[in-house]
Amino acid sequence: PEGDLAPRDVVARSILYEMKKNGSDRVFIDITHLPPRVITTRFPHIYRFCLDHGLDITKGLIPVAPAAHYMMGGIKVNSWGETNIAGLFACGETACTGVHGANRLASNSLLEAAVFSKRIVEKTRRGAKTEAPAVSKVVEVHRSLSDRQVPQVVPVPSLSAVQQLQWDKVGIIRNKEGLTQAADILAVWQRSLPQPTDRPSCELSNLVLTGRLVTEAALLREESRGAHSRSDFPQSSPRWQCHIVLTQ
């Protein structure tokens, strides 16, 4: 009903629906009704990228598919970017600042990076002299990561395995069965991975942990809200109008 103004989660679910209906891995955007000059000046990077791959978007259709775009959660911080560890700050996509809600609005990532980085600099310059302003209380549900059942079949952990698991079981539309399967596998991976020694192993370890946090929170949240959509709980619930905080 909202057409071009529909939020990202609605568009992503609609694209997924069309892909499944047609047995395809993509849908197509048609912007050929626009004058070529408008396309090349308003979308110069997309135009050149597609042209480098043999596609002239002024004349042909653009293949698109849903993809992970932006983290709306992250490390819990206050309004000054402070974590619960003294001297450790976080901002940008890695932090949960509270500016996104259930569905990130356009340009909020710029707000999150620019505003909170400036506040962190101010805080570190002034030290204890800076007092954080009073903030409205946000309802929080606290849980600890616990041991899970060991599944009979566990894939070998790798970057591609994590990506495939998250897409298949923790993707655009979720349910308890798929989330539970993913959570069990991620817990095994987290326990079995050796101590990271280089960048690839650090990235894999961090991806497994992040994937597990996302999965456990999605399993706990028995409702649909914004970008979190569960087929077994299709409606939003006032009970879950809160933040989920997970600890080790």
UniProtKB/TrEMBL annotation:
Protein name stated in the entry: L-aspartate oxidase
Alphabetized PANTHER family for the sequence: L-ASPARTATE OXIDASE (PTHR42716), L-ASPARTATE OXIDASE, CHLOROPLASTIC (PTHR42716:SF2)
Segments forming domain Fumarate reductase/succinate dehydrogenase flavoprotein-like C-terminal: 162-245
Domain spans labelled FAD-dependent oxidoreductase 2 FAD-binding: 3-110
InterPro entries: FAD-dep_OxRdtase_2_FAD-bd, FAD/NAD-bd_sf, Fum_R/Succ_DH_flav-like_C_sf, Fum_Rdtase/Succ_DH_flav-like_C, NadB, Succ_DH/fumarate_Rdtase_cat_sf
Gene3D superfamilies assigned: FAD/NAD(P)-binding domain, Fumarate reductase/succinate dehydrogenase flavoprotein-like, C-terminal domain, Succinate dehydrogenase/fumarate reductase flavoprotein, catalytic domain
Pfam families: FAD_binding_2 (PF00890), Succ_DH_flav_C (PF02910)
EC id: 1.4.3.16
Pathway involvement of the protein, from the record: Cofactor biosynthesis; NAD(+) biosynthesis; iminoaspartate from L-aspartate (oxidase route): step 1/1
Family according to the record: Belongs to the FAD-dependent oxidoreductase 2 family. NadB subfamily.
GO molecular function: L-aspartate oxidase activity
GO terms of biological process kind: 'de novo' NAD+ biosynthetic process from L-aspartate
Alphabetic keyword roster: FAD, Flavoprotein, Oxidoreductase, Pyridine nucleotide biosynthesis
Cofactor dependency: FAD
